[in-house]
């Protein structure tokens, strides 16, 4: 008599997928934290910007520095907050105008959740009120995207010299 195998119902697959996705996330987060702990010289960086083109440009600029690692990229403020809380980066590069949660609001939450992170705004906004708000929140740098190619590395290096 042949053995007949019955396929499980879809909800089991859904639950397994969900558990696997969570397990993969936990492994990824713990790996990033482990690599940071083992390689003390590695500077971990989170990039948060809704523009994929700008995130690519930032990656190109940051590749110039050995020992700096982009550990995550977020396309909105809410993801930036989650990544910062989970991964505890040394540097957070934030845009101001992002969906779901703007950069200023995200920075307030990140400052509370991850006080050791150095927050640097990289934005198109050249406004004294916004710059003042960024400073009040605790940002250690403010770079215009139009000047990022020449200024971003210098601002990050200066921020790393400051105590969090």
Short synopsis of the structure:
The protein has helices at 10-38, 52-62, 77-87, 103-113, 128-137, 148-161, and strands at residues 43-48, 68-74, 91-94, 118-123, 141-144. With 164 residues, it is of the alpha/beta class.
Polypeptide structure, described:
It is a single chain. This protein has about 160 residues and is α/β, with parallel strands linked by helices. The chain has 2 domains: about 10-40; about 40-160, Rossmann fold (3-Layer(aba) Sandwich). It contains 6 helices and 5 strands. The protein has helices spanning about 10-40, 50-60, 75-85, 105-115, 130-135, 150-160, and strands at about 45-50, 70-75, 90-95, 120-125, 140-145. Strands 2-1-3-4-5 form a 5-stranded parallel β-sheet, with helices on both faces. The mean pLDDT is about 85.
Keywords for this entry:
alpha/beta; single chain; globular; 52% helix; 2 domains; 164 residues; Rossmann fold; 5 strands
Low-pLDDT segments: none
Architecture (CATH level 2) name of the largest domain: 3-Layer(aba) Sandwich
The total beta strand count reads 5
Side by side, the strands of the main sheet go 2-1-3-4-5
State the helicity in percent bands: 40-55%
SSE diagram, text form:
Layout: H1 10-38, E1 43-48, H2 52-62, E2 68-74, H3 77-87, E3 91-94, H4 103-113, E4 118-123, H5 128-137, E5 141-144, H6 148-161
Parallel strand pairs: 1-2, 1-3, 3-4, 4-5
Helix pairs in contact: 3-4
């Amino acid at each position: 008599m042949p053995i007949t195998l019955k396929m499980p119902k879809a909800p089991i697959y859904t639950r397994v997928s969900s558990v696997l996705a969570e397990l993969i996330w936990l492994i990824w987060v713990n790996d990033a934290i482990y690599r940071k702990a083992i390689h003390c010289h590695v500077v971990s960086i989170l990039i948060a910007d809704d523009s994929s083109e700008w995130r690519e440009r930032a990656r190109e600029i940051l590749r110039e520095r050995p020992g700096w690692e982009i550990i995550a990229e977020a396309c909105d403020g809410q993801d930036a907050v989650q990544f910062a809380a989970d991964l505890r980066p040394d540097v957070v590069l934030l845009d101001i105008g992002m969906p779901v949660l703007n950069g200023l609001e995200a920075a307030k939450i990140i400052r509370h959740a991850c006080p050791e992170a150095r927050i640097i705004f990289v934005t198109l906004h050249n406004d004294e009120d916004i710059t003042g708000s960024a400073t009040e929140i605790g940002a250690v740098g403010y770079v215009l995207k139009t000047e990022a190619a020449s200024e971003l590395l210098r601002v990050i290096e200066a921020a790393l010299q400051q105590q969090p």
